[in-house]
Specification:
Blueprint (H helix, E strand, L loop, with lengths): L3 E2 L3 E2 L11 E3 L4 E2 L12 E10 L3 E9 L3 E10 L5 E9 L15 E6 L2 E7 L5 E7 L8 E8 L7 E6 L6 E18 L2 E5 L5 E10 L3 E13 L2 E9 L11 E4 L2 E4 L3 E4 L9 E5 L4 E17 L2 E17 L5 E17 L1
Parallel strand pairs: 1-3, 2-4
Antiparallel strand pairs: 3-13, 5-6, 5-16, 6-7, 7-8, 9-10, 10-11, 11-12, 12-14, 13-14, 14-15, 14-16, 17-18, 17-25, 18-19, 19-20, 21-22, 22-23, 23-24, 24-25
Length: 340
Amino acid sequence: MQIEITAPVSIFDDIGGLCNFGWARGPFFHYDRALLWTPGRFIVESERYVIFSPTHLFAFELYDAGVIGHISICAVSLLDKTISSKFEKLSFPMGVLELPNQSEETVIKTAVKNNLIEFICIGSGGRIIKVDAPQLSHNNRLRGEVVLMAQEDEQSIVTNTPWRQKERFQLIRCSPWYTVEGVMQFENKPVLFNKGRAWGIYEWARTTRPKKDIHYWAAACGMYQGQQIGFSVGYGSADSSAGTENAFFVNGILHKLDQVTFKISPSNWLEPWRFTSNNKRLEMTFTPARGNSYQNNFLSYSLHTRQFFGFFSGTVVLDDGAALRFNNITGVAERRKTGG
């Protein structure tokens, strides 16, 4: 039985233990790094955005896992399926990125090896992304500024889950429904983001991880038949019995899903992926357009991510029992394996 949290709560009790596991429709879980008893090498904090127009997709991530970390920028042409990226490894970041405790307090400015990224939280749930990366792969430069806008009633999927038999937790928020406006200069050409034709996904995570984990995640958003739709689905080795990461959104309103399973060809990850839910509420196919893989290994610690960008089609049954069909919604799917 999933537990919905409907008012602000702390994820810590009076003596620093973990509590209030479940899911919420907004950022109701209070996290404070200073209250953690866990060694810093097991604390993971990350912020990432995926934005896309009809022609291009850009992904930005700041990732601090204590011993290892990274700043990643990825640019994908959805028309000719080319990819250009930058992956800057960080050794012993241990909070150097200064990621905030709450997802609504995001004011981040990071500059590493001439790569500048700014994530700024503004009023009414909006966000600003500024980036200047002078040398991605293939000698491409990415530079620009976009505004991500939210409507007042839009909801997010937020989960606080424990690891099985561990004094660890996983706190994740995903908001797959932003509209995007602005310009990115890429390959010496402007990429325009126009409201109603460009979309954004925001994911925020704070976790104290076990020594090993494999986590799957997929998210997408866009317009289909006059409605704004989006979703975020995922799972790993955390105990999701109190609340799964899975939700579908229609015009920003959350429809809660239970378990969702990823089915991926082991011989060719560029073949279509299949997604199914345990109660038959979601049947979906992902057609990858382009993939990206990166690794970060240091001492006994490791991170291996296989990430793919493409298009989702399928059918979802909403909370009121209505079936909604959708086709070719742009998004991202990945498998992330950590160890050490």
